[in-house]
Amino acid sequence: MVRYKATIAYDGTDFSGFQVQPKGRTVQGELEKALAQMDKGKFIRIHPAGRTDAGVHAAQLVLHFDYTSTIPKEGLFKGLNVLTPNDISILYLERVANDFHARYQAKSKMYSYRVDNQGVRNPFTRNFALHHPYPLNQAKAEAALAVLVGTHDFTSFCSMKTDKVDKVRTIYEASLKIDETTKEWIFTFHGDGFLYNMIRIIVGTVLEIADGRKEVEEMKKVLEARDRNVAGPTIGPQGLRLEKVHY
Fold this sequence. Notes:
This protein is an alpha+beta fold.
């Protein structure tokens, strides 16, 4: 039995999320289907560092699986890239110790969220950025993001559908860059973990502050309220991308 660590990328547009489901096309389902084809129909479970929702993308998601065949690593790597659909790529594949665990040994994750701030939506980025055509104030957005850095209870920024009891997380970075050519706002979040819909709710709240619907001072009040009802909307999944998992 050999344990492999794989780093994959995928366009989440046409997936019902990462986790396998009874109905719906999923990233996990496609990967496990490819592994079964490689190993003569034998089912092999994959274990990801995390899961993404429908429409969310990943630049570098890490996962592990145990493989019984003696096929060389290079052959497995090439075979998986042939058998997976065009919206999934295996970027790296390596043998690791049998006690490696993609989820439990991950120390932090980095996500980005992209907002298209052009007056007219860009049809070529509609699956990868949220179109928000209203005037935005960068200074207000950055001030709101600064409130979130550190260790806090993020109940206000978590979906009420979550099964997590402990909602304390640490954010190491919450930053913003703006591409003046494309008018794309790129939010970056680096933390030890993120709750269900947390980033989508945070950016939804920041956009309300940046476009004047809320004041900067309200961000701290929202955070301290620990009440989902006082935060902004859960914006669309298309702008969210897992950038990297740190070990």
